[in-house]
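The following record pairs a protein chain with its ligand, flavin-adenine dinucleotide.
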Amino acid sequence: MPEQDPKQRVKNFDEVPLGYSLDTAIAEAKRCLECKPQKGRKICVDGCPVGIDIPAFVKQIKEGNIEGAIHIIKKKNNLPAICGRVCPYEDQCEKMCVMGVKFEPVAIGRLERFAADYERERGLNVPEKPVSKDGRVAVVGSGPAGLTAAADLARMGYKVTIFEALHEAGGVLMYGIPEFRLPKKIVRAEVDYVRSLGVDIKTDIVIGKTITIDDLLEEFDAVFIGTGAGLPNWMNIPGENLSGVYSANEFLTRINLMRAYNFPEYDTPIRVGKKVATIGGGNVAMDCARTALRMGAEESYILYRRTEKEMPARIEEIEHAKEEGVIFKLLVAPTRYIGDEKGWVRQVECVRMELGEPDASGRRRPIPVKGSEFTMDVDTVIVAIGQSPNPLVPKATPGLQTTEEGTIIVNEEGLTLKEGVFAGGDITSGAATVILAMGAGKKAAAAIDRYIFTKKCG
Ligand SMILES: Cc1cc2nc3c(=O)[nH]c(=O)nc-3n(C[C@H](O)[C@H](O)[C@H](O)COP(=O)(O)OP(=O)(O)OC[C@H]3O[C@@H](n4cnc5c(N)ncnc54)[C@H](O)[C@@H]3O)c2cc1C
């Protein structure tokens, strides 16, 4: 897929991949072998957490019927332009693609993106509303889990209200993933699509503060909690409280949601220095390091305690970061941050690491090399070492139970230990992916439908 030139794109926040044309999409779709189902199952569909009928939609593109393709995709996925951009396809549907055994797998994700963009650019096609069902559902949080649960329930005929703490809906899609990977106009268009199904979205309402889950249960037949993993993890090393040390969440929220990149139109307080060190090796770390360059950093470093092979970030994100000039310092871990007399970070002290035996994650455990400490001059540090579940709702809701990691305990269907309360996404799994959050929202929507039916009729 054509992309913006790295030298150019590092100076702007425009999207990096430019998308397929109709001809290139059809040519790519023609690579699909239309494999016969094995024991009634289509293997690429088994790799999709929301179960899109991939061979059927790819066939429609092959035949030039893009509307037909999007119709098939939307039976299962209400956020296709988002998934077509950020899903880790290489580990899901594309990993199962038979073409991938000898050649490149069919670019299923890019084809999904193409079909969704084609439809959006020509005006949205809202599915017919079913007969309305008797029942009201409250959804807490408007990330991919909440949006999916809400959309599925609205399509079943329920009256659904989403309550969102922030001023704009979309969750991490809106406040976390940068514009150059996921343009916000696309998130808004897909959130508007969910609204067009009849879902009411109320923003600026923090559930667990003025309104509790128990209050919601008085007004609604069921509640779905999709409050995500928005609590930043810290290393708890000296100097983390210095000015100029950000959590990835704060850094990206200021830039994405509060549009710090649109200065002076948006005058968001943010200071991005000349030498920026991002700690971590996941997608979030890549997003921070690339964002720092776009915000004017002269040197943007990734400090990661293992090697590139163990990095959890998608290969494409690592490649994009390298092309843009991000400098990777591998097998190093920060031990403290050193500030000036005014309390601003000026240096990071690191220790070199070597890899030992595999740990519980299956990756080789990093071990500090004694006496290998060194310092680097920095004026900004971004800590991107993961997020934990948002604790507010679980803490404010009697009857909900959580694991030691803070995730809400649910059964297979997303039902919590509190009657009528379901949950899914990062708040139950811990920080994961958009499509897994959507899969959990879908499963819970089906369970809520059964729960309300039983409550009302049986
Ligand atoms: C920077 C970054 C980059 C990422 N990149 C990718 C990627 O490329 N691909 C991928 O698949 N995944 C990626 N992820 C992970 C993915 O975004 C998450 O797994 C996914 O968004 C989880 O969805 P969710 O609906 O569970 O929660 P979220 O998206 O976190 O949404 C939760 C929502 O609930 C709201 N909320 C929280 N508490 C309350 C409350 N008390 N009352 C009301 N509302 C509340 C929050 O404001 C938020 O809007 C990334 C994550 C980050 C942070």
